[in-house]
Structures are given as C-alpha cells and as structure tokens.
From TrEMBL:
Residue intervals of the Methyltransferase type domain: 66-157
Organism annotation: Bradyrhizobium jicamae
Identification of the protein by name: Methyltransferase type 12 domain-containing protein
InterPro entries, per database record: Methyltransf_12 (IPR013217), SAM-binding_MTase (IPR053173), SAM-dependent_MTases_sf (IPR029063)
A Pfam family of this chain: Methyltransf_12
Stretches that traverse the bilayer: none
Secretion signal span: none
C-alpha cells in the first residue's frame, strides 16, 4: 500500500522549494530570450518532425506544459501563437513569473493554473502535445505522474519528456549526500554551505565535466538548490526509461538527439560491430554507461496507436520516408576522408562517409522520398536491390548519429 502521508509531505516540500527558488531563473522578456537562445528544443516548431513524422495532427495544437516552471509555457505560447497552451505547476511564484510574461507579450493563448499534474484528468481535456521536462523525477511516484499525463494525451498526440540521467549525475548524488550529512537545508544558509563545499570539490570529482567545469546551473542559487539540495530527485538509466514508458502504456518514440547514444560516435572496429549487433535500446544503454556523460535524457513518447510511425529500417518501408538533414550538419574533411559533422552536446559529432553516400545526401531536400532520390541518374547504374541496401545502410547510420531525421510523405 502506498504511504500517501509521506507522498503528500514530499510534494509539499517540493512545492515549497519552488515557491522560494523558482526554476529556471525567471526571465523578463520572452522575445529577447528567444532571439538570443532560439526556440526551446521541445517547441513543436523546432521538433515537429520528431514529434509527428507523419505530419502535425492539426495546426492549432492543444499544448500542456506540465510543471511549466517560471517561463516554459509562456515561451511556447509566444513562439506558437496559433496554438493554445495550458501551463500547470505547483508553485505560485513560478506561475506569477509566467503570468508576467503573459501580460508583457499579450499571450491570449496562454492559460496558467496552480495544480498538480497528478490531477490533470480532472480538467476533462485532452492535448496534442504534452511537454514535461525536469518534473517527473521530482514526484514521489513518477509512474503515477506519467500515467496521469498519458490519460490526457490525444491518441495521435506526442509527449516531450526530460528525466535526469543516472550515469551523468553520479557526482551530483555524491555531493547531495555530503550536503545532507552537513545539514544543509533549502535556504540561504544551505546555499552558502553548498558554495563553500563546491570550492573544495577536487578537479577529478564526478561532478566536474571532462572540460574541467562545474555544471552551469551551479552559478545561481535556484540552480544550486535544484541540483544539490532537492528533497525528491531520482535519475534513470536507459533500461529504466524503457520500463517507465512501457508501464504507462506508452511507446518510446526516440531521443531528442540520437548523437548522445550513438555507438558510431564513440566506437570503432570490433567493439562497434559487437555493439551494433545488439537491439537499439541496448546499444543506447551501452553508450550511456560508457560515456557517463548524460546527466539528462530528452525523449519523445506516444500512444501505441502511433507506433506505426516509428522510424525503422528493417523493412523496405523506409524507401517512402522523406529525409531531412538536421540544422548545423556540414560536409567536412577531404575527398579521401569525408565526414558529416555537426555541433552537438558533448562536442562535435563527426561520422565518416563515402563519396557515394555524400552524393546521396546531396539529393536530400526535405521533399523527396528515399525512393525518388534513388531514381536519380547517379544511382540507376546499380541493381535495385543493391541500391536499396546501400540506402538502408546510409540512412540507418545517419539516423543513428542524429544527422538526418525522417518524415513520412503519405498519410
Ligand atoms: C526543475 S523545474 C522545471 C520547469 C520547466 N519544466 C522547465 O523545464 O523549465 C520543475 C517544476 O515542476 C514543478 N512541479 C513539481 N512537481 C509537480 C507536480 N506534481 N505537478 C505540477 N508541477 C510540479 C515545480 O514546481 C517546478 O516548477
């Protein structure tokens, strides 16, 4: 039986924390923010192909930002004026910051409510897109949270989730443990103690990045409390994410950026061959454990009904996909050693490609299907089977690295 008294106590501690230390640090001007940083990565205008490879269900999306914090719902509403956005959060302080952005930018499409995402079913509404980043891992029962969201997701809807990553946050939990022993609370004195401790963290500690830096969130009080003094926080390894999604009756629909789980990026020779022989989720798990760099996992989930739109290459259906080169990708190297490269979290992703592969990618325009690209004169000299096998290998590699995304042309 669940201990609801304990769960309520934890939820209250979480609420109080975000009343005092609103997160992320509030912003004054959403337009300036978007101009400087670009759209949030869960913004449907940015992540549309990944959310709905088959095409957006409707132009006027109904969006829920569950645990919207101080600005997320307002930024999404600002950047998507044709959509309606509901932001819900436990913290009145964070909602007040969001409300200021609503007033400043005249966001008639933004509605804000103080409530737990666990109660969202009571609204008797459904949503095309649910954004829930950095929230579920703070619930006493994250599974109940995901199920509550799944219940209000439209059958053709999509959800963008961010959960903490276990391997990349190992150092965070060591420091949290020290601060707990030192009696540091979620107040000014606790933050001061944390700052003193950070001064003596050795440069080889797991908290420090390979480039020798402390996580950037530790530059401000709310970030210190959120990362090091939180009353409720758990992190996930890749298999735990798969179980979490499945337990809610949902389908894992892909990472925001495959590069963070891409075997080709980190391995070669025998190791790469061995890892690529594993099912996809195991490959991701190996890379997550190997790099130990993922302190967060950003991914998409959908209802089982949408599983037919999963990107896959094990049948010839992929020939009807429309490839799209991700922003920032460029051809580099020289004629004898070409690479397709782009900046990504954890440094540049550079995947070697052959001249023939480069020629195929040159034909990618975000409109032509793979079958149409293969009918180009440069490929018609080879047998159809050879062409299909060639395209499968290229597309699969480019998809694994996240350099290429795929939409479906037909219904
Ligand atoms: C780390 S912040 C993330 C904010 C925002 N999603 C973002 O990514 O910028 C977590 C937010 O979740 C909210 N929260 C925590 N538990 C919640 C719950 N059960 N229902 C609704 N909001 C919750 C907190 O109040 C806080 O504002």
């Amino acid at each position: 039986m669940k201990d609801t008294v304990t769960e309520d106590t934890i939820t209250e501690a979480v609420r109080q924390q975000y009343e005092t230390y609103s997160y992320p640090p509030p912003i004054e001007d959403g337009e300036k923010f978007l101009k400087k940083w670009g759209p949030l990565t869960c913004d449907p205008r940015f992540a549309g192909i990944q959310l709905w490879p088959e095409g957006r269900p409707r132009q006027e999306l109904r969006i829920l930002c569950a645990g919207c914090g101080s600005s997320q719902a307002a930024l999404i509403a600002l950047n998507n004026p044709d959509c309606t956005v509901l932001g819900i959060d436990l913290s009145e302080t964070s909602l007040a910051h969001s409300n200021r952005l609503r007033d400043r930018h005249g966001l008639a499409n933004l509605e804000l409510r103080q409530m737990s995402l666990l109660d969202v079913g009571e609204l008797d509404r459904s949503f095309d897109l649910i954004i829930c980043t950095g929230v579920l891992h703070h619930l006493p029962d994250p599974d109940a949270g995901l199920k509550a969201l799944a219940d209000v997701l439209d059958p053709s809807g999509s959800m963008a989730i961010m959960l903490y990553g276990k391997a990349g946050r190992a150092g965070v939990y060591l420091v949290q443990d020290i601060l707990r022993r030192l009696g540091a609370g979620r107040n000014a004195e606790g933050v001061r103690i944390a700052r003193e401790l950070l001064k003596v963290v050795p440069s080889k500690h797991y908290l420090i990045s390979p480039t020798g830096k402390l996580p950037h969130d530790l530059a401000h009080d709310a970030g210190i409390v959120d990362m090091l003094l939180h009353p409720q926080d758990r992190a996930y390894a890749v298999p735990e994410i798969m179980e979490f999604v499945e337990a809610a009756g949902l389908v894992f629909f892909g990472w925001k950026d495959n590069a963070l789980y891409c075997a080709d990026r980190y391995l070669g020779g025998e190791m790469l061959e061995r890892v690529l022989a594993l099912p996809a989720a195991e490959q991701w798990s190996v890379i997550d454990n190997l790099t130990a760099l993922n302190d967060r996992h950003d991914f998409f989930v959908r209802k089982p009904h949408s599983a037919r739109f999963l990107t896959r290459f094990d049948t010839d259906d992929f020939l009807s996909y429309v490839p799209h080169i991700r922003a920032g990708v460029r051809l580099a190297g020289d004629v004898n050693s070409l690479v397709l490269a782009r900046p990504a979290p954890q440094g540049e992703v550079a995947i070697p490609i052959s001249r023939a592969e480069a020629l195929m990618l040159e034909q990618v325009d975000g409109k032509k299907r793979i079958s149409e690209i293969l009918s180009h004169a440069i490929f018609t000299g080879s047998e159809p089977e050879q062409r299909t096998s060639f395209a499968r290998t290229v597309c699969e590699r480019m998809w694994r690295s996240g350099h290429v995304l795929f939409s479906r042309s037909g219904p």
